[in-house]
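Re: [ENG-882] Designed sequences occasionally contain unexpected residues at chain ends

Forwarding the minimal case from QA. Structure tokens:
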């Protein structure tokens, strides 16, 4: 099991209602999700987890990339691994103030790895 998968599983076990998956997105799913981001666009990523999709979004070379993660441990992990991604530890339900603080009047793509409820 990879380090990211172990971290993800540990966070799931700590708070399964908020993490809601036992493993990060796979490579193929990550590529498909990232494909929604236009090259040089502005990307908003909800629930980056350990950054499986984040890495693929970065390959699209977004002009700006904001990742909103509710779990502080996962948010720190993504921020450390990809310092060019603007990571905010917040709940996506509070997205309005986050976008206001980010100065984003609009985004070109929203990529969500959040669980359905």
């Amino acid at each position: 099991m990879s380090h990211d998968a172990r971290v993800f599983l540990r966070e799931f076990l700590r708070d399964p209602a908020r993490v809601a998956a036992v493993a990060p997105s796979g490579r193929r799913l990550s590529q498909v999700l990232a494909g929604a981001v236009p090259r040089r666009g502005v990307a908003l990523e909800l629930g980056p987890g350990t950054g499986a999709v984040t890495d693929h979004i970065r390959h699209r070379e977004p002009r700006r990339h904001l990742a909103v993660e509710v779990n502080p441990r996962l948010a720190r992990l993504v921020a450390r691994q990809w310092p060019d991604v603007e990571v905010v530890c917040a709940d996506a339900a509070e997205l309005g103030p986050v976008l206001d603080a980010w100065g984003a009047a609009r985004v070109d793509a929203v990529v969500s790895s959040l669980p359905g409820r």
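QA comment: On inspection the terminal residues look reasonable. Residues 3-14 form the longest helix (12 residues). Proposing we downgrade this to a documentation issue.
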